[in-house]
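Risk register update: the risk that structure generation would not scale has been downgraded. Supporting records follow, first protein first.
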Amino acid sequence: MPLPKPLEEKLVKQHYHICNHSGVKLCHWTKESLTSGRVCYKQKFYGIQSHRCLQMTPVVAWCQQKCIFCWRPHEYDVPMPKWDEPDTIIDQCEEGQRKLLSGYWGNERADKKKLEEAMHPNQAAISLAGEPTIYPKIGGLIEAFGARGYTTFLVTNGLLPERLESMTLPTQLYMSLDAPDKETHKKVNVPMIPDSWERINRSLELFPSLDTRKVIRITLVKGWNDFDEKGYARLIEKSNTDFVEVKAYMFVGSSRQRMTIGNMPRHSEVKAFAERLSSELGYPITNEQEASRVVLLSSGRKREKI
């Protein structure tokens, strides 16, 4: 196993299923969909099925940043592994998903028809932890998911624009933008490479040429980056993105060792920021989900449903 034993044990305790350098974890909204019928904002906004979503990562412990709001532990320095092939990763993650779901057969509240469907996921959220574009065969992973009938949502920090430019693109590409300026970026994202801000801007400039549905995601951390909507708007304009998601930082995982619950904005605060950003950017607010503290701004160029 490429992970240090203490890190692996910590992740397993947090209900990850570890697959060599990859990992899978049941999303809160997968569980909610099975037991209460409540669904993820991605189903509401984009039409995926929460109970059939595979939340995974090919790089469970590798990233070029140590974001203050990230739920992963930061204290481990893990050497790069020998990389698995895309089909091996998918096989392992599907098996892990089924194991994590198996206990729901005995849950009286679980919708058994949905549970049977959940055993055969058709949507991959490549975003669980780490920076997925570090995996050198990320384009091949997206192709392999597509060959199995999956749609794919990939979340990137934008620090490898050269990979975005050359790889097979997912059904929907997210890029995180968590600061309106370089100084805030250094404080909030804590990059470990010297030219991170320049790389983020290169990815924003590359965005218009990428032929897929594109989303800029802002994670608001109260008291840290929830200001300067003009700065955010100027950066987002470079991307000509289809959608902007403004989402609250959530007080979960290892972020609780760095932040306080007071850093988690209320939905009303997220919406107020989104309204100011909408005025600056010219993208109207078209959807929101209070339970997830997220607001959607849309360019109007593409349908929201996939």
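Supporting record for the second protein:
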Amino acid sequence: MIIKRNLSPIKILRYVRAETVVSVILSIAVYLLYKSGVLVLALPFSLCAILGSALAIFIGFRNNTAYARWWEARTLWANIHNSSRSFARQIISSAENAVAIGKTTPEKARVYSCEVVHRQIAFAHALRLRLREDSIAIKALRLPTPQTASTEEFRHLLSPEEYDTILSKTNIPNMLLQKQAIRVKEGMKEEILGGFDNISLEPTLATFNTLQGSCERIKETPLLRQYDYFTRLFLVVFMLLLPFTLIGDFIKIGIDALVIPVSITIAFVFNTISKVGAANEDPFENLTTDVPLTAICNAIERDLKEMLGEELPPKIEAEKGYLM
């Protein structure tokens, strides 16, 4: 996630470098052709004005939809964070209450609480890795030293036996939630949890399933391809026609060379706005424009370990204006 207010113009230019190069070549070619007298017919500017209006509608719709996907993804992970704290609070308070009324020993309650809460932290890390598919995308606006990710990140949160078993599963987060449900039932049987604690804990676990499914829906369902395709197609047509419609007006006022910088500037603006939507439509691709899943998982781990009274991992800070 980009958190700095100002972006580097050079990085932005690299982001639209292909389109900018095409615009530069095309505008210079049109100027030279008219200057040499090879072309004498100029298209009316109203043609590009009409096409630009249609293009603006497509780009606006795409950008709004892309932002809605990004914001929904951020909201889902905020709910995962909040629900994780609620789940840990319920487990820890119930276990401590069992100790207070003599149902179990402090050592047994402590071991149980740590196991379940650590598994909940592992769930957050595992879901992050599943959504990002443990890959680093090499694209524009990347951090200079991108962070790699692997299941080793949550190895310390699970027992060796459970960790080895869970790696063979195709949907690790889902299997961790299943294990949580089993351990809740076992905790009730061992009287570490109360007989009615399942009534409050099971809906919380169901919430995690719902949130995971919503994240997977965003990951696996792209923005409608027709909007992406026609936006790119109309943008290319717009860039091709733009210098031909501008040259006539600039010839009339005697400064025909202005067709080059004006065409490049207008094309740059439209392309940049279009790229903003393209960058935001997939919020789980491990790009600097994504939802900061690594930072959120770090916050979840810090909050839950603090509730257990354990040593906290270092807080992940933004690096050069980017939070991953």
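The chain is about 70% helix and 0% strand. On this basis the risk owner (M.S.) recommends closing the item.
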